[in-house]
Recover the amino acids of this structure.
């Protein structure tokens, strides 16, 4: 670890502190990857003002390398988290029994053209009485 590392801590520790502060200040989640892209952008923004200052190029390349490293570790962490969640779900979620489909309701067959439709039943009535 160089002089800068002894003074400020590892790159990951420093970027983690920066990401946490930015998350609080901006009110949205900022990752180590985000910090490295922002820092690289700052170095690129300085180049037009002093194109012969090598530090901007070297630091920009380093920040881009950090972005690559952090993107991989964040993707791996995301996959690991998804696997952990899936494992917990399998462990704690109740298993659903197999759905049993009810038997279909049998409908009477429709009348065919050869069979007349059944006539509705009528109540029996008395024949009319003869009049005198």
């Amino acid at each position: 670890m160089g002089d800068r590392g002894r003074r400020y801590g590892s790159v990951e520790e420093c970027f983690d502190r920066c990401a946490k502060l930015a998350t609080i200040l901006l009110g949205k989640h900022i990752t180590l990857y985000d910090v490295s892209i922002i820092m690289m952008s700052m170095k690129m923004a300085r180049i037009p003002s002093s194109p012969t200052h090598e530090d901007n190029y070297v630091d920009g390349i380093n920040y881009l390398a950090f972005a690559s490293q952090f993107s991989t570790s964040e993707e791996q962490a995301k996959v690991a988290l998804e696997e952990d969640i899936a494992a917990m779900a399998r462990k704690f979620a109740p298993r659903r029994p197999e759905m049993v489909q009810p038997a279909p309701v049998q409908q009477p067959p429709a009348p065919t053209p050869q069979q007349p439709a059944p006539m509705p039943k009528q109540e029996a009535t008395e024949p009319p009485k003869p009049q005198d």
Remarks:
- Helices lie at 3-8, 11-26, 32-46, 54-92.
- The chain has a mean pLDDT of 80.
- Residues 54-92 form the longest helix (39 residues).
- The two ends are 131 Å apart (CA to CA).
